[in-house]
Amino acid sequence: MVRFVSILSLFCCTVAFAAAHDGMDTDMDTDMDMDMDMDMDMDMGAGADVVEVSPVASIVPVPHEPKHLHGVPILQLSSLTPAERLYWESYNTTTYLTTQAGNRPALRYHAFTLLLIAFVLYPVSLALSAARSKWYLPLLFVNLCVCSSSVMALSVFKNTFPEGDWYPHNIYGTTSGLLLVLMLVHFFAAVVSVPVLSKGSKNDYRSVDVIPLDDLESTPVMVNSARGSLSPSSNRDTLFSLSSSTNNNGNDGNDGNDGNDDDDDSNHNTLRDEDDNGDEMASIEAPPLSLQDIPVFRILCASTKYQALAARLSNVATVVSHMLTYPLFLYIFVDLIVGFAVGNLLGKGIRVFNLLAHWIKGGVFFTLGVVSLARYCGFGAKYGWAWNRICFTLQLSQERSSNLLFRFAPTGTFTMEFIESFLIFFYGSTNIFLEHLAGSGGAWTAKDLQHVSIAFMFIGTGLCGLLTEYKLNNWRFEHAHKHSQADVVAATPGFSPNPFPAFTIFWTGILMSQHAQTSQFSTTIHTQWGYLLSYGSFFRLLTFLILFLVPNTNSTASKPLTELITSFCLLCGGLVFMESTDQSIEAMEYRGFTPMFTFNLSVGFVSLLMAWEMILFIWKDRLIKTRKTSL
Q1: pLDDT tens digits, residue range 596-613?
Q2: Cα–Cα distance list, 240 to 214, 278, 388, 621 (Å)
Q3: DSSP bridge pairs for 506
Q4: From CA 145, how far away is CA 503, in angstroms rounded?
Q5: Is 234 helix (H, G, I), strand (E, B) or coil?
Q6: Where exactly are the transmembrane stretches of this chain (predicted)?
């Protein structure tokens, strides 16, 4: 046995040595052949006129090879599959905005005037309305004229476009016409309603149900008479007028003083000349606007026929004017967005559902960011929505029902957290079946169920938010009413420690940031806006923590610095959300843009928009101060 193993080992070694020897011979032969080839090449090159250069000599050394950077179209990539290359080679970039067909000056004029109305003219008119400026109605008339010319320019372009209808059954023509009608109705309603607002003198406001108190610890209690102070609902309320504190123009303190007969009567008729931040009269409500103050409308005001018409329609006109102010502002942007989609041929066919999903949800967060910044600037201070404490006293128990805002209001009042929770619950309820519209009639896919689960989250967190508001009702009242001897029937510290609205935004951002897409480009953009929404909700919770530890003790708008960051995150996150549609992603990929392209543009645009919004609020306060001091 041992001999057999020895013989086998010797045989294996012999075979291995033979194989190694053959390999060495082969390598030597190969080397010799290479040397001979090199000698032949040198001999041939010696007699040739052109010397062949090695490809290595033409390579330029670089630290990194460019892959998909700025300005590198997707068709220049070598990593495309045959199916991908076939799709991108047939990709068409021609739209209404890029073609040269039709009346181009008319289209450019339409786009420019619509942007002018949305970002300049109408917002400025809101500020003038809040300040009761005599230029409000003239500027509203300018809005109407510019809108009319814009719609006419759109009609001219449509009639001169020779290529037919590239976007069949689009609704942009209808939305533009409806915008003109709403502008017209709003203007005439505003004109007719102005005399109603100026029927009484500045110190004669009737039908007042509720009196806000500026500072219960330092200001004497206002009178509870039928001729008390201006109620939050007795003046025209706009996005900007809600930022003003309420006048306290009580007439005679002897009519009723809530047990404070020792207070001097003059305290009931004075306006605070300076708020806690040192801005003189910045938070004072402007006096009512009179039609005689407007030079253009003096002749109209003197007409007996107009006075008779205004007497019959003034109440209806006032309601219509109030109801159209905010919706019209939003509808202008709806029309602008629809025009952008139609002009770029976005959302055609089945892709309309992806477009609507991103633009509706992104638009909600963008609008929330605008409102958040407005609250920082003082929006809703009359109702305690500007992070400020507010308290209300009831004049007569039977008069509470005459004010719809406070008829069903709890003792802790309706807070902005309550409104946000209700809107979250309502949106979730309506969104259950919307996620299946793209596959209507077919089976529910995993993607449908994934999106519907987010709707369930909205329903659950919205309902939890409403229940939390109910549980915190007494807390809000006691937290705002403590250390006060006034007969207060409703009070709020300016916030409700309700985490569910911020919680909803946080988890929406987290879930969407983990939502894998068909391309890495799209996944990165979803991650961007998902994280932005999450960051915004985090700073909103810090706002609650700051005000919980250091509560605001007066009715002036508080200025939590965290709200500025929250507003930026919501605005930028909502905008990037709207930009993350499939067709927008494809347009950027085709041109070679990176995910940072849309992110950088969004950050710059949002920064400018925030600055413009803050400028409008500051200007509005200055207008109020100037008009008040001139009286």
Answers
A1: 888 999 999 999 999 999
A2: 19, 20, 16, 9
A3: none
A4: 45
A5: coil
A6: 109-128, 135-157, 177-197, 328-347, 359-383, 404-429, 449-467, 488-509, 529-549, 561-578, 598-619
